[in-house]
Amino acid sequence: MKHIVKILTLVMAITALWVGLLQTSMIPRSHTWLLPIYFVVSLGCYGLLMVGVGLMNFPTCPQEALLLQKDIGEAKEYLKQKGVDISPS
Amino acid sequence: MDLADRAVGFLLSFISLSIFTYYTFWVIILPFVDDDHFVHKYFLPQEYAILIPVSAGVALLCFLSIFVGFVMLKSKKKKA
Questions:
Q1: Distance to chain A for B10, nearest Cα, Å
Q2: What residues of B are in the A interface, CB distance below 8 Å?
């Protein structure tokens, strides 16, 4: 709940800044109109960057995978002993 | 497998950073540079700064809708 308030505040601040820029026309109109698209593009770039970074140092744990495979084998053996059919249908 | 993932991640980060740098230069800094400066040779006219992102967004949205529709059709066929 707190996060969304933060995001909304940021959006409001950016909108207020943009409207102010439009009203005062400090810089030419045609350039001010580009700003929202600039923000959308930078948001997309941020998302892509986060995905790339997450993919780059994706945590893998090979030891845990080995242990898990061993566990699965053990469970299969146990179930077979008890007479449960676990063949993939 | 691990190395390929890492390479893809690096590529994604690199692409996003380069797009961000180029677009920032194009939209934020270029209006303050003189019109007859040589830097303007490396950038398209200002209209394209709107046209390209909007068309890319529309294309992405179309692709997403087509993909979702395709998946829905496929799942319905499976159920029947």
A1: 6
A2: 2, 5-6, 8-17, 19-20, 23-24, 27-28, 31, 46, 49-50, 53-54, 57
pLDDT at B66 over 90: yes
Q: Do B12 and A51 touch (CB under 8 A)?
A: yes
Residue identified by tokens 């046209």 is B51
User: What pTM, to 2 d.p., does this model score?
Assistant: 0.69
Locate the domains of chain B by residue range: 2-79
- Mean pLDDT in each 10-residue stretch from start to end of chain A (89 residues)? 90 88 74 80 90 86 91 92 78
Contact B48, A41 (CB under 8 A): no
Phi, psi dihedral angles at A42 (to 5 degrees): -70, -35
Tell me the nearest-neighbour CA distance from A20 into chain B, angstroms: 17
Could you report the per-residue pLDDT of A51-70, keeping only the tens digit for each?
A: 999 888 888 888 899 999 99
Which DSSP string corresponds to A10-52? HHHHHHHHHHHHHHHT-S-HHHHTTHHHHHHHHHHHHHHHHHH
pLDDT of residue B1: 63
Q: How far apart are CA B73 and CA B67, in angstroms?
A: 10
